[in-house]
Structure formats: structure tokens, C-alpha cells
Design brief:
Length: 128
């Protein structure tokens, strides 16, 4: 009985380790992508970049983070003084006994303060 409990404990520990090994990188990438979206929304609401330019920057960031997102799943809208960036994507994770599809829906917006003019970001600053 004691050896069974020990084997069961080891199996649970291995299963948790495998789950962390597979899931933590996915969630970290999702968090970094959402953080990059928020930063772009805050900064680009004051810039003269077009929606397409912002979209291309965010798609480049998604590729860097190995996020499987299609171009049409990332939406950038500039309406008046507001800039909204949203995305919907699914990350497939294979576990030995069952596959898991993790769905992510990050969304953020930036609002320009009235009386603050749009300025171009210098090319020497790194983009996100």
C-alpha cells in the first residue's frame, strides 16, 4: 500500500510537471502579446501611424512570440481619439492523453487626451 501511494504521488508530480512545461510558455507568450498590445495602444494613439502600420507591428510581435494568429484575427481600429487593438486566437497544446485548445481574446484601447497633438515617433526608438 505504501509503495502504491508513493508511485501515485510520483505520477501526479510528473503530470503536473508536464502540464507546467507545456502550458507556462503559452500563457507567458499570451501575456507578453497583450502587454505589447497595451503599449502600442497607449503610444500610437498619439502617433501618425496608420491602422495598417500598427497591424503590421503587432503581427510581427505575434510572430516573434510564436503566437499562431492569422492577419484577419487581429483588428486595429482608429475611431476619433480612440485606438482599439483586439485579437482572437487559439493555441493548440498536445498532451499525451488529450489535446487542449486554449482560446485567447486580448483587447485594449488607448484614448488621446484632448488638446494633445499627434506626433511621429522617432525612427531611432525601438518598436514593440
Amino acid at each position: 500500500m505504501r509503495s502504491f501511494r508513493m508511485l501515485f504521488g510520483i505520477a501526479v508530480f510528473v503530470a503536473l510537471g508536464l502540464a507546467m512545461f507545456k502550458l507556462v510558455p503559452v500563457y507567458m507568450s499570451a501575456y507578453e502579446f497583450e502587454d505589447a498590445m497595451q503599449e502600442e495602444a497607449k503610444l500610437d494613439v498619439y502617433s501618425t501611424r496608420s491602422e495598417d502600420q500598427i497591424h503590421d507591428i503587432m503581427m510581427k510581435k505575434a510572430r516573434e512570440l510564436e503566437i499562431p494568429i492569422a492577419s484577419e484575427q487581429l483588428v486595429v481600429k482608429h475611431i476619433g481619439d480612440d485606438l482599439t487593438i483586439s485579437a482572437n486566437y487559439v493555441v493548440h497544446v498536445d498532451f499525451p492523453s488529450f489535446p487542449v485548445d486554449l482560446k485567447f481574446h486580448p483587447s485594449t484601447s488607448g484614448h488621446r487626451l484632448t488638446g494633445v497633438a499627434a506626433v511621429a515617433r522617432p525612427a531611432s526608438l525601438p518598436t514593440v
